[in-house]
Design brief:
alpha/beta, Rossmann fold, Alpha-Beta Plaits, 2 domains, 6-stranded mixed β-sheet, 4-stranded antiparallel β-sheet, 11 helices, 14 strands, 36% helix, binds adenosine-5'-triphosphate, ABC_transporter-like_ATP-bd, transport, ABC_Transporter_VariousFunc
Length: 300
């Protein structure tokens, strides 16, 4: 289990992560979303033991990460641009990883060869961006880590390879209870992959939930009433994240239980009423709007 408690980290006196707490259970796939500069990379690097938290604690399996080489050897951090030694090939990087990570498995490395089909003797610097990503995944999974931390991992991968990597991750989670943390702006990928999501803004966690609960908790409501006063009466009863009026139809993004929203609306006898689920992208945009990070109305 990953336990992050009231962690802060600053750069030049500015807090990049500000008193943030987060728990990720073993075998979970956790998606970290957030605005640009929200502090996601800083948080992930603190979790990987690259940064020491200035305040608070970061523990994996009950052990503080920064201080423990043993824990760090069981954690792989994949940065947004893969790093390999100059002149290195997959073969030589594999030899390096084997010497650093006690969990390295030659058997797994061989098995994964059929998934990635990259030339292990060729210089990695000559690989395309997507091929370099594949190489980074191949090396990371061959280390059989307990925790895999990935910063924008899907960028540059073709759809077949994305599917391939998704399947490999699901397999590792199911068979070995690998714990995965992914930071991404690609909300479709997160929606597909993750069971939990957290949305960060200004160094803090805005929302943190089971993805299914998060979706069950935010809805798009379209209503029209014969008497407009009913709309304002209804608005005072709902927790509205966003609203738009289009002619006689009122559109609301509402937080709360579906049944209770439905009951509240029916009291005012609408002649139009639709209660629709939101995509993760819509939830993200409205949560951000609620936090004062506004976008222009985007509902079509
Ligand atoms: N090495 C650094 N030196 C100085 N400031 C930094 C450093 N790394 C991050 N920051 C600052 O910390 C804040 C959080 O940055 P971070 O990279 O963690 O955000 P992020 O959520 O990953 O952003 P993005 O989605 O744009 O990648 C930003 O204000 C950034 O300028």
């Amino acid at each position: 289990m990953i336990e992050i408690r009231r962690v802060s980290k600053s750069f030049q006196g500015e807090k990049a992560v500000d008193g943030l707490s987060l728990t990720v259970h073993k075998g979970a796939i956790y998606g970290l979303l957030g605005s640009n500069g929200a502090g996601k990379t800083t948080l992930l690097k603190t979790l990987a033991g690259i940064y020491r938290p200035e305040e608070g604690t970061v523990k994996i399996g009950g052990q503080p990460v920064f201080e423990s080489t043993q824990v760090k050897q069981r954690v792989i951090f994949m940065p947004d641009s893969p790093y390999f030694f100059p002149q290195a090939s997959l073969k030589s990087m594999a030899a390096y990883y084997r010497s650093i990570y006690p969990g390295w498995s030659d058997k797994r490395y061989k098995e994964l060869g059929s998934a990635f089909r990259l030339d292990t003797g060729r210089k990695l610097s000559r690989f395309s961006k997507g091929m370099q990503r594949q190489a980074a995944f191949w090396l990371a999974l061959s280390c059989t880590p307990d925790v895999l931390i990935m910063d924008e991992p899907i960028d540059g991968l073709d759809p077949v390879m994305r599917r391939q990597i998704k399947n490999l991750l699901f397999q590792e989670v199911a068979q070995r209870e690998l714990t995965v943390l992914i930071s991404s702006h690609n909300l479709r990928e997160i929606e597909d992959l993750c069971d939990h999501v957290g949305i960060m803004h200004d160094g803090r966690m805005l929302v943190e939930k089971d993805l299914d609960d998060l979706k069950a908790d935010t809805h798009k409501v379209q209503v029209a009433f014969r008497d407009e006063r009913h709309a304002s009466a209804l608005e005072s009863k709902l927790q509205i994240l966003h609203q738009e009026h289009r002619g006689s139809v009122n559109l609301y993004i509402v937080k709360g239980d579906r049944e209770r929203i439905s009951q509240a609306v029916h009291v005012y006898e609408p002649y139009v009423f639709d209660l629709l689920p939101l995509t993760l992208e819509e939830i993200f945009i409205y949560e951000m709007g609620d936090a004062g990070y506004d976008a222009q109305p985007i509902l079509l």
